[in-house]
Amino acid sequence: VYAFFLLFQILGAVILGFGIWILADKTSFIAVLQMSSPSLKTGAYILIGVGALTMLMGFLGCLGAVNEIRCLLGLYFTCLMIILITQVAAGLVIYFQKETLKEELSHIVGDLIENYNPLNEDERNLQDAWDYVQTQITCCGWTGAKDWEDNKVIINQSMTQYPCSCSNRSEDLEKGGGFCNLDEPVNGTATSNDWPVHEQGCMDGVEQWLKDNLGVILGVCTGVAVIELLGMILSISLCKNIHSEDYTKVPKS
């Protein structure tokens, strides 16, 4: 029994750590989202709060079981039920609002690409994070390399530059970020078709990553839900097994 409450504290620590990682991460797609969308930051703070609350509940549950305190076990059960209902509600909202979230994400990345400028130090972390995404997923733009044709710097350079992180050449990737120049002049006006870059957009890459890891994501979510359900069952069982003292049977002096 006590090992289970300890497991719950560990689960809380994992959730807490995940929320802190979202806020601290500066080199992945998560960084692009949390720097651009306040909703993800809010979600990270919620995870930190849930993680801290879960750890506290594990401690209270253990304390209630050791000292046979019904009110602590009842509080443990109530908080678990609230968290479980909140998680299910959040999952349903994400599922039914996925197209809206996808559209919002397209606007976020679109604005980032359009205003990308290696000389802008204020947006350095955000731009480095996006360069990292394009390099790791081997993609270019959100829907494709054509998205970069809207970039203000590239337009001013007559489309003779392209993002180095999009390139399919190792010498360009060694530069890390910024823009690279076309080696040979192009007849007429250059387009993204003239750039030595990946054809796949990052949207397809992200969706493919989600599909490849969907089983792991669902497994983790299911595991967390099962642990919470077991915690609820355990707490209510312990609560029922705690007997109140019957002082009517105490012999009178």
From TrEMBL:
Localization: Membrane
Keyword list, A-Z: Membrane, Transmembrane, Transmembrane helix
Xref: InterPro entries: Tetraspanin/Peripherin, Tetraspanin_animals, Tetraspanin_CS, Tetraspanin_EC2_sf
Pfam families named among the record's database cross-references: Tetraspanin
CDD domains: CD37_CD82_like_LEL
Transmembrane segment boundaries: 6-24, 44-66, 72-96, 216-238
PROSITE patterns with a match to the protein in the record: TM4_1 (PS00421)
One GO CC term on file: plasma membrane
This protein's record includes keyword Transmembrane helix: yes
Keyword Transmembrane helix: yes
Main location, first listed in the record: membrane
Domain of life: Eukaryota
Membrane-related topology note: Multi-pass membrane protein
Family recorded in the similarity comment: Belongs to the tetraspanin (TM4SF) family.
Protein name: Tetraspanin
UniProt organism field: Campylorhamphus procurvoides
Lineage, broadest ranks: Eukaryota, Metazoa, Chordata, Craniata, Vertebrata
